[in-house]
Amino acid sequence: MKKSVFKEGRKYTFKDYFEMPNPSEEIINELGCSYSSGVLELPRSENCVIGSVSILKDSYYKVLPKINLDSEAAKREFLIAPILFEVAKCTGSGISVEYLTEIDDRLGGYLDCLIRSKQHLVLKND
Q: 35-75 pLDDT, tens per residue?
């Protein structure tokens, strides 16, 4: 019988998965799932104004080179937050920040962001 990648009685967080030495496919298979690589086609919103995306892009190119992004807080506040504002504005989605989830002993912890819409999208920024 093959040895489990999970230790009996231990709770695992999202961060723990990134620190495991096992190949991703092995971990995913043990969870009873599978995955494939490919281009992700996300839904498009008719409510998005292309001009606001262009303004955001221009701001990034002008301002980001002047900001030290060595900390998680800096990345979250200067890189991710402006994009999330645009996502919420364009799609009407709700956003939960630092969202606690406990699925079972093999998966729990905080999600950086959960975008609430017809399709839930998870952003994990590790």
A: 888 887 776 767 677 788 888 889 888 988 899 889 888 88
CA separation for the pair 13, 106 (Å, rounded): 7
Dist CA 17 CA 2 (whole Å): 19
Bridge partners (DSSP) of residue 93 are none
Domain coverage including residue 79? 47-92
Three-state DSSP class for residue 40: coil
User: Three-class SS of residue 81?
Assistant: helix
User: pLDDT tens digits, residue range 76-108?
Assistant: 888 888 888 888 888 788 899 889 988 888 888
The structure tokens 């096992």 sit at: 22
**Is the same domain home to 69 and 101?**
no
